[in-house]
Amino acid sequence: MIRVLLVDDQPLIRSGFRALLDLEDDIEVVAEAADGQEGLALVRERLPDVALMDVQMPLMDGIEATRRIAADPALVDVHVVMLTNYGMDEYVFDALCAGAAGFLVKDILPEDFLHAVRVAARGDALLAPAITRRLIDRYVTQPPPGRTGSGLQELTAREREAVALVAQGLSNDKIAARMVISPATAKTHINRAMAKLHAHDRAQLVILAYESGLVAPRGR
């Protein structure tokens, strides 16, 4: 059973998402919160698999709540998916850096919403190619100071290759095809790289790939 926490200051949004989730046999909404502060407390109390978190909320915004969740070792299995009215707004980069597994636009189709919840529960990032392109564009225009080393020296050659392909927005199946290995082996390479680099999820793995210089965006 996938345990979901809804965190949004708009009751109508929460009730709409809850109505969809309650129809699914494999998903359970364990709690709702109207602000980031309450959401953070409920994450610690209920330990959901997926926390659907609005970006802009009173008391504590979704990005700060996500940052605190990602920093708590006891919450490592909680996957935060940000809810936004704008698919490509200015919060994308900050939220991914904070530890969000991905983004959902609030006018998403119901079937895509349910699929996204299941993807997040598996630990896969909702990192669409458009979001990846935004990250790359950010690094082209505002290159950050590199994290020299950043643990990359601990990666095997195959793990480095897998991380570079993740940074291109490829799925496990496509990474496996590119590396001529099975999807299970590709996932193992990625998981080991995440552990060595202390990346919370694939989204942070992409950020680390660019910050460390493992991957350089075109035009840089």
UniProtKB/TrEMBL annotation:
Classification via Pfam families: GerE, Response_reg
HTH luxR-type domain boundaries: 148-213
Keyword Transcription regulation: yes
Residues the record lists as 4-aspartylphosphate modifications: D54
Keywords recorded for this protein, A-Z: DNA-binding, Phosphoprotein, Transcription, Transcription regulation
Gene Ontology BP terms: phosphorelay signal transduction system; regulation of DNA-templated transcription
Coiled coil (residue ranges): none
A GO MF label: DNA binding
Ranges where the Response regulatory domain occurs: 3-121
UniProt-recorded name of the protein: LuxR family transcriptional regulator
Organism: Streptomyces silvensis
